[in-house]
Amino acid sequence: MGARVQTRVSAYAIAVEDDRLLLARLSDASPIFLPGLWHLPGGGIDPGEQPVEALARELREETGLEIAAARLLDARTYAVERRGVSWSLTALFHAVSLKAGVPAVAEIDGSTDAAVWTPMAGLRDSVLSPAAADALRMLESMRRGELPVTATR
């Protein structure tokens, strides 16, 4: 028998401040991507919940920070196997500005165990979730004046 198949739609925040990207480290409770990877704050959209509402909720839980403004940038899909589940994840990437504050994980036993502003210079794909790596590429494209484009692998 094959892996159980799950579909999930998630909203993620791309927050940049002083050439630093806000990242959250995935814990053992992470359902999709491997623990220890740095990931974008955000997560699953509950039934009936609007994407920006889910983004604001997840951002509060994972970083303790509040959204001032959000704009949808792009969407990507990922196929990931973890713990006997074959995940089909659709990720909605939002450029966000945040209200003042210091990142701190608010959720107990959630999918993240740390939240930090990380200098973008020197970030490597090997320490990033696939979604965070794609977000970094989106930011690099936008800095060159290009629109976000679907990643090719």
Describe this structure in words.
It is a single chain. The chain is α+β, with helices and mostly antiparallel strands and 153 residues long. The protein has 2 helices and 7 strands, in the order ββββαβββα. It has helices at 51-63, 130-143, and strands at residues 4-17, 20-26, 38-39, 42-44, 67-82, 85-98, 112-119. Strands 1, 2, 3, 4, 5, 6 and 7 form a 7-stranded mixed beta sheet that branches. The two termini are 29 Å apart. The model has no long low-confidence stretch (mean pLDDT 91).
Structure in a nutshell:
This protein is of the alpha+beta class and 153 residues long.
Q: What gross morphology would you assign?
A: globular
Please give the largest β-sheet: 7 strands, mixed
> H/E element string?
EEEEHEEEH
- Strand elements, count: 7
